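Re: that chain you flagged

S.,

Sorry for the slow reply, it's been a week of failed gels. I finally had a moment to sit down with the sequence you sent. For the record, here it is as I used it:
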Amino acid sequence: MATHTIDLIRGASHPALAGLVAGVVGISESAPGEVVRRQPAGGLLPLVLSWGGPLDIVSLSAGQGAGTYRSFVAGFMPGHVTTRFEEGQDCVQVYLTPLGVQRIIGVPGRELACRVVSVDEVVPGLGDSFADRLGSAPSWRERFGLVADALLELASHGREPDDFVDWMWGQVEASGGRVRVSDLVDRSGWSHRHVTTRFSEQVGITPKAAVGVVRFVNACADLGRLPVAEVAARHGYADQSHLTREVVRYAGESPMALVAARRPTAYTALDAAQEPTT
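Prediction finished late last night. Pasting the structure tokens below so you have them in one place:
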């Protein structure tokens, strides 16, 4: 009887891509039939380079782009996405940071936010022909090398973010989404309108929305490990009900259902992936 298997292989991120690429993972998944997943919101944006079967983006709670894709990129999305495939997936997934989108994809984050877009539309050089080269490569190490070379070339032509946007995103991440946006605006020396406009253009969503997503991601890391009320208090939610509402908003289900499902996400894929041996 056919079984469901998934292999996750970690690729080394080139030092020159630090701050732009959070990680690279090779995925080879085989299933006896249909696989449907709900992917919660997150602060890492997937660039999927696939030589396997297509993936259906069934629905997006906070965006657009439902359809069938081979290679694609998803922008910053403050909501959950439902995906579907049959039988198998073979791909390299590059997990871009929000600031990495502008440098590597070559368009402001605002143009991809809340969207799923075919790679051929935005970076033709990473489209189907490049994915076919990855599939033909004899080892994961060679695939990762091809991807690293391509990303370095793209990043060399990309636009740097504004210094204060780079700093501000770093503060949001470092605080686990608990920093006050008004405090960051005051420290930036710019007006609230200017900060919000430039941050939204380059990261893709407003500072307030980014704080919400990052706080959710950090809270999820404690769900299942600590009582829900303690998770709420630790991550700055008003109470357990507030946390539950935010989890439903970003994940499409309750905290306990999210823990019980334990679906793979960008973060769990990076944690679970093994170093390649061939």
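What I noticed first: The longest strand covers residues 21-39.

Talk soon,
D.
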